[in-house]
Design goal:
alpha/beta, 2 domains, 6-stranded mixed sheet, 8 helices
Length: 344
């Protein structure tokens, strides 16, 4: 793909210590330190931080940030931008399209003087009942993540993993099943997948998830009957044969030992690596990820065929090599500050 005369991609976006910076627009995308103006792709803490001057994001992401950091998380103010809308910042057009990662997640589309760069943020291509599905957007440069950018990472069908969980619940009716799931996005997705699979009983949840669950409900995601996972008003045996959803860290905490002979489950793309499951003492690994796997990453690049691919973080080398073999110019930006959480 040929670029507009005298315009190079790095004139529009370039990596800086603070993150991806847009010189003509004078804003950052998912900056890792406080800046005057930030465009935020989604609400996970490695992409959405408090302390920026003005924050532009989807209304859902702004609501998540307010829930996590308080109403004053932006020093100057918030700028909500719904999917399909656009705004011009110092001559640069910015729009947000769904990324399919979590509620409100978006790809940042920046256009200037005939050039279009799409920054994926974190994304996945498969259906998620809790958020809008990824929308491919033609572009000159596609800036992609590569969290699971190795051919070994091929995530199975979500329904099969949920079926394995329900099968285990039926096999061990005297035990509680505790599902470790990231508090924002993964937990609500697991709950909705359980509902779709026919589990209509009350699901108990760790207290750290209650506020985000309510936020999802406010934004139209029906999670069904939920209750606090506490034994203060009942007996530990009351949880036998039930399902509890908690942050991954709670699996190793004394909190989880209050339940009857718990089956530790963990919903994460990293559960493809059995050594990780063994290291964490996970009895039932569930390979459910909110990130694109190898096939989703490469299929997306094949579909878009951008003029260039920039890789922000993750397994850059393998994806960079795949692009080379496909004749797509690619480079690893090696941005720092974006965590690879076990719960991804």
């Amino acid at each position: 793909m040929s670029y507009p005369a005298v315009i190079k991609p790095q004139d529009l976006l370039c990596p800086k210590p603070g993150g991806l910076y847009c010189p003509p627009g004078d804003f950052y995308i998912d900056p890792v330190r406080p800046v005057d103006r930030a465009v935020i792709t989604h609400g996970h803490s490695d992409h959405a931080r408090a302390g920026h001057g003005t924050v532009l994001a989807t209304p859902q992401t702004l609501a998540i940030m307010a829930e996590r950091y308080g109403e004053d998380f932006a020093v100057v103010g918030r700028q909500p931008l719904a999917y399909g809308e656009s705004v011009t910042i110092n001559g640069v057009e910015v729009s947000l399209v769904p990324a399919g990662h979590v509620l409100g997640s978006a790809q940042a589309v920046v256009r200037w003087k005939g050039m279009t760069i799409v920054v994926s943020g974190d994304y996945k291509r498969r259906r998620d009942p809790t958020c809008a599905r990824f929308e491919p957007t033609p572009c000159d440069v596609f800036v992609t993540e590569a969290t699971f950018g190795l051919p070994v990472f091929r995530h199975p069908d979500d329904a099969g993993e949920i079926a394995a969980l329900l099968k285990s619940v039926a096999q061990f009716p005297d035990r509680a099943h505790i599902v470790g799931a990231y508090a924002l996005g993964k937990a609500q997705r697991v709950i909705r997948l359980l509902r779709e699979a026919g589990w209509d009983r009350t699901i108990h949840v760790h207290g750290a998830m209650e506020r985000l669950n309510r936020l999802y409900e406010v934004h139209g995601v029906d999670l069904g009957p939920l209750a606090p996972a506490t034994t203060e008003r009942g007996k530990a045996g009351d949880f036998a044969g039930g399902i509890i959803v908690a942050p991954p860290s709670a699996l190793a905490d004394r909190w989880s030992r209050r339940f009857p002979d718990p089956v530790d489950c963990f919903a994460s793309g990293w559960m493809r690596v059995r050594a990780r499951a063994r290291q964490r003492g996970v009895e039932l690994p569930l390979i459910i990820s909110d990130h694109a796997d190898w096939d989703e990453l490469t299929d997306t690049l094949s579909e878009l065929r951008p003029g260039e691919v920039w890789i922000t973080h993750g397994r850059e080398e393998a994806l960079e090599r795949w692009c080379e073999l496909e004749g797509i110019p690619a480079r690893a930006l090696r941005l720092v500050g974006y965590d690879e959480e076990d719960g991804e």
